[in-house]
Amino acid sequence: MPVPLRPAVSALPAYVAGRPAPERGDLVTYKLSSNENPFAPLPEVLDAVAEASRAMNRYPDIANTRVAEALAARLGVTPDRLALGTGSVGVLYHLLQAVCGPDDEVVHAWRSFEAYPISVLLTGARWVGVPLGPGAEHDLDAMLAAVGPRTRAVLLCSPNNPTGPALRHDEVLRFVDAVPDDVLVVVDEAYVEFVTDPAAVRGLEVAEGRDNVVVLRTFSKAYGLAGFRVGYCVAEPRLAQAVRSVALPFGVSLPAQAAVLASLEQEDALLARVAELVERRDALVAGLRERGLDVPDAQGNFVWLPAGPGTTAVAETFADAGLVVRPYVSGQPGDGVRITVGETEANARVLEVAARLGRAGTELSEPPPTV
Asked: How confident is the model at residue 80 (pLDDT cuts 50, 70, 90)?
């Protein structure tokens, strides 16, 4: 008889990672499926990683002391409010493990970050997905109505991955103040450095003075450290300590800690790259709209193309042109394609393909013409 698995584990949906770009002899291919930063690491960061790797026979600092101190100074918080982990999603897993259990519920928008249902189900809790509203945005009124006596946490993704819009600061304040004080509200700001909307939520301000609000952030996107998996949360000290207690010991490696410290020292150069990606993003959104495609507001390093039942065909059309994008196919309303802002040449080719897709309206109901 096989070893039985927990029902929660058996029921887990698979996390679908972005596919790599295949090598082709006829053209250069681009991976636009994983929201990665297309710029190569800075030399100063590479040097710090190489130096740290000389001590790979030693365990890393389990408390991430130097990183926490540098990050606390950067954010204007005390180190005891920080907990680090293997990417912001790793920190989310630990956070929900600390507060959720069987028969609890976690409310979040859907479609949103694909790891949310997995992180909830691992605790034995149930996820309550609230459909996005117009413009592919969170419907905060509907989410508030979904909060009930079993709700232990609410997840807010801003900008929303994969659709792009950011939550508005004043609306989030009203939402948080209407949620019971014993319900955790997680403001996931994995793409915060790319946000240019002045009305967008400012997570750290929302968390100030509210012990039930936690902010999630990552070094994967703007700082270009996706391969090292370093994320963190800002929380009140008791919650932060709970996350650190649940976390896998030595989760953030020695080279990863060195990369974060070097990146914070080189932040001006890295944020200049972010500014360039924002310009490319805005140009990509404008170009897609000019070609008749319905693209919602984009505040991350990606754009969203609603495609409905034509989603698979749209993704294949891009793939035929050497562009690997990320299709979201469920057979339900709201399916579409996420396209990461990439190299200048890749973005130009996206617009070339978009010209062949024709005017989409709200969704591409028919398969597009082949490229």
From this structure: very high
Question: For every residue of 67-98, which 3-state class applies, written as one string?
Answer: HHHHHHHHHCCCHHHEEEECHHHHHHHHHHHH
| Bridge partners (DSSP) listed for residue 185 | 154, 213
Structure tokens belonging to residue 60: 């890393």
How many structural domains comprise the chain?
Answer: 2
Run of H or E residues at 259:
helix 254-265
pLDDT one-digit tens code per residue, 137-155? 999 999 999 999 999 999 9
Whether 49 maps to a domain, the answer reads no
For residue 241 the two structure tokens come to 């300590």
**Degrees to nearest 5, angle at CA 70 with 64 and 75:** 115
Residue 322 lies in a domain: yes
DSSP letter, residue 219: S
pLDDT tens sequence across 163-180? 999 999 999 999 999 999
Domain containing 331: what range?
7-41+268-357
Calculate the alpha carbon distances from 279 to 191, 196, 273, 326 in Å.
15, 10, 10, 21
Sheet strand arrangement including 336-340: 302-306, 336-340, 326-328
